Each structure stands twice: as structure tokens, then as C-alpha cells.
Amino acid sequence: MRFDIVTLFPDFFASTLGSGLLGRALAKHIATVHLVNPRDFTTDKHRRVDDEPYGGGVGMLMKPEPIFAAVESLPILPRREIILMTPQGQTLDQPLLLELATSYDQLVLICGHYEGVDERVLHLVTREVSLGDFVLTGGEIPALALLNGVMRLLPGTVGKVESLKAESFEAGLLDYPQYTRPAEFRGLRVPEVLLSGNHAEIAQWRYKQQLARTRERRPDLLAKESDGDSERG
Question: Contact 13/35 with Cβ under 8 angstroms?
Fold first, then answer.
């Protein structure tokens, strides 16, 4: 998969893309990441990428021309999505990450800044995505979160595919509690069922723990499942 990140701060991504799971995935050519700076597409001597909003208001807006030029400079793969990272977009969740990982060959991520982007940029994008109901200084952190979430779902990135299937949100539930050695630490013991070697009992215990944890922490997820069952019925 090809990722194109349109950002005023390409250095922001350098450390993350060169280390850990993402770094290994890029080294194995599972994906490629290309950083594009809209400032390189400005035409004035000051290389301005922002201006005051018409009608007045606080702050500056990113101008449309450099963003359009930056995106139009990119190659076009058959299955491409152009995404604007914005608090006004659809909330990023696991189903969306899975859709992006399986349905597209190229993701173009536009990182806004200042007070946002000129509204005409929306004619360029095909989807708006948000991390949640809060505001950050720019779109780089959300873009990195999306990139990380999608890339780890690409075949070959994570060694054991089974580990992806057992994670939080994959089955509409939060993950179950997990433990490693030692069996006892500061008086806190690993549940006996996990030491039993009985895989059927372990699977049942884990499922019950998922339900209990989801009911306690994210009852909205259970409500979604119930709504889905009602619609299917």
C-alpha cells in the first residue's frame, strides 16, 4: 500500500517511520510512505500556505492552492482515498481501519493546521476522518494514528495473524485481561484457569472477561451489537 502524507511538518514522521513495527513494515516493502510539503508548491516569494479568512475571525486558514497542487503532483493508483484529518470527520475506529487496509491501494492523508483549511479543499477529498471530539494543533498526530492502525493490518506486518483477531474491537468487544510470568507478583496471582492448560476453559473464561469488561467500560459497544442483531432479525 502507498501512503502519501501532505504535511507542513514532514520531520514529525521521521523517527516513527524509521523504528518499530512501522519501520520493519517499510523495510519489507509492505507499504511505502511519501511525505509531501504544501509549502513546496507555493508560488510567492514568502512561500505562504495560510491567509486570513474572508469575513473576519480569529486565526489563519490554509490556502487551497498549495494543497491542491501537492495532491495533484502525486501518482494515482486505481483504488485511492484522499482523507482530510479534521475534528469534523467520521470517528476513526477499528472497522474503518480494516476498510482502509483492505479496500484501497493508496491513502492520501491531508494534515490541516492553524484554524483549518479553506472549505474548497473538501472538493478534493473523498473522506474526512477524526480521532475524536477534541482539537489538536494539527493533523499530523491523527494521520500517524491512522497510518499505524492501517499498516499493522496489512499482511506481513504483524507476525501472528491470530493476534490481530483477538484484540479489542475486532469482535465488537474489549480485550480480555492478559498475564505473563511470574505467576505471582507482589501478592497478585495469575488466575488459576490460565495455568490449567485447559484451552476450552481458558477460551470460555476469556470470553466472559471480554463481556464483563465491555459492559463495565464501554456499554455502548454492547448496545451496537444488540442493535445489529435486531436489524438482522
Answer: yes
Q: What is the pTM of this model?
A: 0.86
In 94-190, alpha helices (H): 94-103, 140-151, 161-165
Residue percentage of the chain with pLDDT more than 70: 91
CA atoms within 13 A on the CB side of 115: 13
Domain ranges of the chain: 2-151, 166-232
Q: Specify the CATH number of the domain 166-232.
A: 1.10.1270.20
- Judge whether 26 and 2 are in contact, CB under 8 Å: no
pLDDT tens track for 203-222: 999 999 999 999 999 999 99
> Which pairing describes strands 188-189 and 184-185: parallel, antiparallel, or unpaired?
antiparallel
CATH code, residues 2-151: 3.40.1280.10
